[in-house]
């Protein structure tokens, strides 16, 4: 269960070594889980051919997804903008920028959902920075 949230390979190696050696000094290390949280920007370009109500539903869908699985920071609605080139024979798109912090696995999930959602012309997820948070086992946010 401890390995599930460990994305740092060095920490996993040291935990396995500590379990093998079983020394008293390293038993405290086993009680600490490292969660590596990164800051991300998620830019979404939605088709402007759909109604504004549906655009709001899409924004709320992604906002709820981010709030459920990450630390939601803010959403910045850029609104209707002209595209640099035609995408699916469309000239305009509705731009939305989400900022959030999460573990490295979550952007893969949000990318997968973006690809299968209709009326999304383009999206990009950018990693801004990272910070390491130490939690003792059983500690809740």
Walkthrough of the structure:
By secondary structure, this protein is of the alpha+beta class. It has helices at residues 9-21, 24-30, 52-69, 106-116, and strands at 32-47, 71-87, 90-102, 120-136.
Flag low-confidence runs. Answer: 1-10, 24-32
Helix content bin = 25-40%
Could you tell me the number of beta strands? Answer: 4
Helices and strands, in N-to-C order?
A: HHEHEEHE
Briefly note the structural class of the backbone: alpha+beta
Taking all residues together, what is the mean pLDDT?
79
| Total count of helical runs of at least 4 residues | 4
What characterizes the major β-sheet? 4 strands, antiparallel
Brief overview:
By secondary structure, this protein is α+β, with helices and mostly antiparallel strands.
Q: How does the SSE layout of this entry go?
A:
Layout: H1 9-21, H2 24-30, E1 32-47, H3 52-69, E2 71-87, E3 90-102, H4 106-116, E4 120-136
Which tags fit this structure?
141 residues; 4 strands; 45% strand; elongated; disordered N terminus
